[in-house]
Structure formats: C-alpha cells, structure tokens
Amino acid sequence: MEDYKYLFKVVLIGNAGVGKTCLVRRFTQGLFPPGQGATIGVDFMIKTIEIGGEKVKLQIWDTAGQERFRSITQSYYHSADALVLVFDVTSKESFNALPSWLREVEQYASPKVISVLVGNKIDLGKDREVNEEDGQSFADSHSMRFLETSAKESDNVDRLFLDIAVELTNNVRNGEIRHDDHEDIIKDTTSVSTCCKG
Amino acid sequence: MDESYDVIVLGTGLKESVLSGLMSVNGKKVLHLDQNKYYGGESASLTPLKDVYTYFTKEMPGGDDSMGRGRDWNVDLIPKFLMATGKLVNILINSGVTRYLEFKSVEGSYVFKDGKVHKVPATETEALTSSLLSLGEKNSFRGFLKYIAEFNPEDLKDEVDPETTTAQELYDKFGLSKSTVDFTGHALGLYRDDSYLAQPCGKTIRRIKLYSESLARYGKSPYLYPMYGLGELPQGFARLSAIYGGTYMLDKPIDEITMEDGKVTGVKSGGEVAKCSMVIGDPKYFPDRVKKVGQVVRAICLLNHSVPNTSDAASCQIIIPQGQVNRKSDIYVLIVSHAHHVATKGHYIALVATTVETGEPEDELKPGLDLLGPIVEKFVSVSDMYEPNDDGKENQLFISSSYDATTHFETVLDDIQDIYLRATGEAIDFSKVQHDLEANKDSQ
C-alpha cells in the first residue's frame, strides 16, 4: 500500500531545551519555530528520502516533553533503529547530563541501535560552553559519531539524518539488522482506520 | 510543580495511565505522579532481572550467568492477556497508542480436565477433533457453538431470552454435559466461579462470542500480548497523555492530599503543593479511603524449558476450572517467553494466580505449579485487593480498584469506563480520542 522500501525509527533524546524538536522540524518541514516552549502535541514526524534509487522513510520521534523531569518511558527506546543524543553547546549542564542519558540507552535500547552525538546551537558561538574537541572526545570514547549542528541556520541538519538513513540502509542490505520480520498485528487495523479519515 | 492543574493522577498503573491519556486528549491540564522510579505501579514489567529479586526482597544468585543478560528480562507483576477483539484493543486502536507498541498473538489456550491439559476447542471444527469431548458431547457442543455464533439479540429463536433464561437452562437446552459446561464457562466464558449459572444467559453468550471472535481474528488463540511485557501498556498511554500536554514526574513520594470542605484542593509532594480540582489514583495512594475486598495469590516462576503438554508453545494460557480441583475460583497459568522479548532465549516465565480462599494461599497454587515441570526460581506474593469506600463524586477523589485475578483486561476496562463516567459525567467517547495531529503527516 505505502510507497517505500524501508522504514526506520529514529529517536531523539537529551535535556529539555537543547533543540530536539527544532532539529526535527528543520529536517522534516524546513522550519525553525522561534520561541518555542516545551514540546506539546508532537508525536513523531515522517520524512521520505531517496537513497541509491530506493525510498527510505524516516520516522523521527520526539520525547513529548517527558525528559523535563527525567520521566521518559522505557518503551520509547525499544524499537529505535537510531538514537540521536543531543546537547546544547551553550549549556555545560546539558553536556554533563550525557552519561546519565547513555545509561538509559544502555539499559533499554537494542544493542544494535546506532547512536549519534549532536552538539546543537552552534549559531550562538559567543555563548559556547562546550568546545568541539570535548564533544568529539566524548563521542569517541563511547563509539558514537559526532556532529555539531544549528537547527536555526540549518547547518549539518540534513547531513545528520541522511547519514543515519544511509548507515541503516546499508546495515539492512548487509544483513546486519533484521527488518520488519515480526508480525505487526493490530497496527494493520490502525493504518486502515487512519487512512480512511483522510 | 507549584502550579494549578485540572486533574492530578497518582500512580502510573494501566488504569491511571489510560485515564490520564483520556483527560489530556480532552483538553484537561494533567499532572501525573508516581512514587516509584519506574512506570506502571502494579502493572509494571520489571527489568532487569536483578530488579525482580529486589522487588521480592530475594538474593539473586551470583556468579551464575545461566539466566542470560538481565536486561533482556521484562517480568510482569500481574499476569493478563488482551482479548483480540476486547475493549482494551479497541481503545488502543482508537487512541493511536498502538503506534508505541507491538503485539504478537499468544500461541495457545488450554484447559485442565481430569488431571490432564487439553487444547480448548472454540470452533466447530476444533470441537470435532478435541480430546476433551466424547462423541456424544461433541455433537451437542457443536450445536451450542453454532447457536452462539448465529445468536442475534434482535432475532431471538428457540425460546431463549437472554434476559430471563439462565445460563444453566441454556446449557440444558443443548444437552451439554457437566464437564462440557465446566470448560465452556471457565475456558471460553472466562468465568472465575460458577455463580453465573443462575444468572441470565445474555452475558454468557456475549462472553463466549468475544472469545470466538477474538480467536477468529488471529487464529491461534483469542489472546494478544505486547512485546517487552504488559508494562508497555501504561507507558503507551502515558506518552499519549504527554503528547497532549500531560506533565510527568516519577519518584515523587506523596506527602498529603489536601482537602477543604470535604473536597480535594491539591496534592503535596516534597514540600510543594500542586493545586487541582480532581484527583484520580490507585488504592495505594489512599490507604484511608479504600476497603479490603479479598486477596490474590500470584507466583512468578522462571523456567528453562517450555511447559509440558502445550506443544512447546512460546506463550499460552492454561485455565484450571475450580470444579476440577474442588475450589470456588479458578486457577490461571499464563506462560510467556523470549518470543515476546520478556525472557532470554530458552527461558520461560509462568505466572500462576488465583483468588485466595484459605489461610495457606501458596498451597492453593499447587495444581498450577504442578503443571510447570522443574522451576528455576519462584516469587510468590499475596496482594490485598481494594475498592474505594465511595464513588468520589462528593470529594472529587476517584480511586481505582485493585487488579483482580482475571486473566484478561475486560474488568480493567470496566473500571476505567466507570471512573471516567463518575469523574466527568460523560461516557468515554472513542471518536474524541482519535489521534490526528498535523505534525504526523509526511511533509514530502
């Protein structure tokens, strides 16, 4: 029914206010919503891209604000194919919180998940509290890729998600991750009911 | 937390989480608190395995990795399955919470009779080959199933009135033997005791229909079970609530529920007061406002083999009808495993539960435990069941009832519907629960 070859679930985590929703909106809608408070009303967003002639659908999930009091549900992590761990380069506190985020990842996410560390808000250079080397070395010590981004200026945002899509697609093609081999019962009914609503 | 809310919900069990989600979707400002560090309260699935030992204050055997990686275990505290066409599935679909969860069917449904485990026949074809029934019984049972399948309350026939004919009279009409009635009422109708026999048969017909329609949906059994355990269910509804603006805080011990003129005014936690005009919560948060109505005994058993006589099913249910073991209420055995990501490969979790009838609750589980074969580890608990003292309309405190011994979620949903009605004066309107946020659409 739907026109894509692969569907991947990408999950964003990191402290409140680091710009997770802005990254998603920038990538999926090309927007930078100014002056936003805590995220309300966003479940996940979808963007379909083409990789090597095949359509790949990225389903990008936001935290629903549950990170504010560190109350993210475990189930949020369960079926993630990729995790984007975001901190704000102008907030040392958000950088210092990374180890505790990684503990949750270690406990609840699949061992095969690919994870990327992102330092966001590089457009606010004068307020920087975390330099690029510190981000890179944290990422290196946890075998993650590292990127610095600006959701506002659109720096590196497309690259962040496209790299993830390419890596996941390659992993499926090389048989490193299995794909959609479980029975997806109940969900079938849901997609029918939502498509009928138009 | 020093703010005002429409509703404060205490405890993140399934009932509270569904209600929180419904309230948020309907535009209420919700604060949802739990005294535990984890979601789910009584309806949690504990992970890693070490936490199960901690919960039951048992020492985990060290230096032994035969149980595999601890984090691959998700152990339910309360055993239940979802009926494939039941009310919980209905609300999951309507609310869009299905997008947060994955389900797999349960492989088999069994019943204990004359000392042996038998597959439950629920279709005419299965009835013909069932080891449960003699030839004569097969014929009358087939006739009965056909009648149920074709039953239409608008078009009554055979002088059966669902409002006046009793269940026993209905069975007699089809000449069902005592033992056929036994498994029909308990394994298909899912009655816990025999008091229903003297009641009008309408409810029994609906229950058996629910069973067969659920069975017809996915084939192997009428039951579904979520990947990673039942604890996923409350978390899914908690996320729904959060999407619609609900605020979540775990690890928040409640100091006091503040009242004025007999009405709730807020909840105090850690020295701060959150104001509200309504509180919903589980009985644990209201020890002075609930009464004990009974006890459930449950044993969580970890096994390193499948359960005998279940065709090596990776998941299944065995019902031991009370009449088979001289009890007043049934014993339920639910088995799940690696296939649902709740145990490591080669391991199984069997949950045995029943309503307490004697002073030796653990002994009451014996007929169920005896079916399991060797048990690696066993965690036994006796839980008090509570009900609220009042309906909450005066004080605006709406308290849920404890989870009963039933093996599915139908009574859970009844309580949710009832609390929602008491709290809002309206029945749950599923069409309002639908998820249609513009952000979810593909922007390309």
Automatic annotation (TrEMBL), chain A:
GO terms for cellular component: Golgi cisterna; trans-Golgi network. Pfam families: Ras. InterPro entries: P-loop_NTPase, Rab, Small_GTP-bd, Small_GTPase. Gene3D superfamilies: P-loop containing nucleotide triphosphate hydrolases. PROSITE patterns: RAB, RAS, RHO. Keywords: GTP-binding, Nucleotide-binding. One of its GO terms (molecular function) is GTP binding. GO terms for biological process: vesicle-mediated transport. NCBIfam families: small_GTP. PANTHER family: RAS-RELATED PROTEIN RAB. This is Ras-related protein Rab-30. It comes from Strongylocentrotus purpuratus (Purple sea urchin).
TrEMBL record, chain B:
Its main location: cytoplasm. Gene3D superfamilies: FAD/NAD(P)-binding domain (3.50.50.60), Guanine Nucleotide Dissociation Inhibitor, domain 1 (1.10.405.10), Guanine Nucleotide Dissociation Inhibitor, domain 2 (3.30.519.10). InterPro entries: FAD/NAD-bd_sf, GDP_dissociation_inhibitor, RabGDI. Pfam families: GDI (PF00996). GO terms for cellular component: cytosol. It comes from the Eukaryota. GO terms for biological process: protein transport; small GTPase-mediated signal transduction; vesicle-mediated transport. It is found in: Cytoplasm. Keywords: Cytoplasm, GTPase activation. One of its GO terms (molecular function) is GTPase activator activity. PANTHER family: RAB GDP DISSOCIATION INHIBITOR, RAB GDP-DISSOCIATION INHIBITOR. Belongs to the Rab GDI family. Regulates the GDP/GTP exchange reaction of most RAB proteins by inhibiting the dissociation of GDP from them, and the subsequent binding of GTP. This is Rab GDP dissociation inhibitor. The lineage of its organism: Eukaryota, Metazoa, Echinodermata, Eleutherozoa, Echinozoa.
